[in-house]
Amino acid sequence: MVHCVIPAVHTAAFDAVRALAHRGGDSYALGIHPLFTPQAADGDLAVLDRALGEHADDPRLVAVGEIGLDHFVPGLDPVRQEFFYREQLRLARRHGLPVVLHVRRSADKLLRHLRELPVGGIAHAFNGSEQQAHEFIRLGFKLGFGGAVTHERALQLRRLAAGLPLSALVLETDAPDIPPKWLYRTAEERAGGVAQGRNEPGELVRIAEVVAGLRGVSVEELAIATTANAVEVLPKLGVLLEGG
Question: Structure pTM?
Answer without folding.
Answer: 0.96
